[in-house]
Amino acid sequence: MTRLKEDDIDEISANLSNYDNELVKKTGYLLSELAEYAVCADFDKLKSQSIQVAVIPMTCGQGIIGGFGESVVSIVKHLGFKAWITDSPDAGGVAEAVQNGADVLFMADDLRFVAINLRTGVISDNGDATGKGYAAGLERMNKGLQEKEVLILGAGPVGTSAAFSLARYKAKIFIFDPDLSASRTLVEKLRKIEYTVNVETNLDQALKHHHLIIDACPADNVILRHHLREDTQIAAPGIPLGVESAMIEQISPRLLHDPLQLGVAVMMFEVLK
Ligand code: PYL
Residue whose CA is closest, atom 14 of ligand 1? Predict the structure, then answer.
């Protein structure tokens, strides 16, 4: 998992309205609507005002990322919930959150970013939620993916979660991972729900053939000019963005990419199910 840097997230809080405007243009959905859609939730908005969300900074490992907790708070507030960042980090922050009546906790160390519903025990993991969110975004951009071919780059937690959502959307799933065994593991996981996944072994050929792509790999400059067509659409949860930087402006109307917003929004609705 790529560790976010402060300058990946420093503009999130100030640009959430613009983020929503762009998302509606691409998918027809606001962030809150797309997140609910991704988890098949039908959340009673009236209840949102009664839910308290605490974000707890974690100092372990490589420590706190400047602006991370604040960005998560701003996204959750944008969804219509009350949210705050605790004064204390770590265990003190958890105690502070519970003492102040938090219903949901968000916290991230170097390995996991989780949301926990203290009332129900439901837990959402950022990697899983992000995969769901981006698959839902691509599905809404196409108003359905049934029988359509979708290439997933990266068979990690995000790509695997996206594959399960694509199975729900009845897409024809193709997977490329530089580690063939990772692709095969994903194939086996989907076989357990009797869903076929096709393995791509040549990245350049795969990118030339496919025009619906979920870029869930942590590499840049993977999707290049000669791979892109007029009808190419890319849902890119991966950090950094895999599209060749010179092509980003041209593809941007058909590109979903953010460092945190969609994953956090899906986590929020997932723990309320
Ligand atoms: C959750 C993000 C999405 C991509 N990479 C993940 C990451 O950067 N994880 C590390 C998060 C550390 C947060 C730090 C803090 O500020 O509380 N412990």
Answer: 64
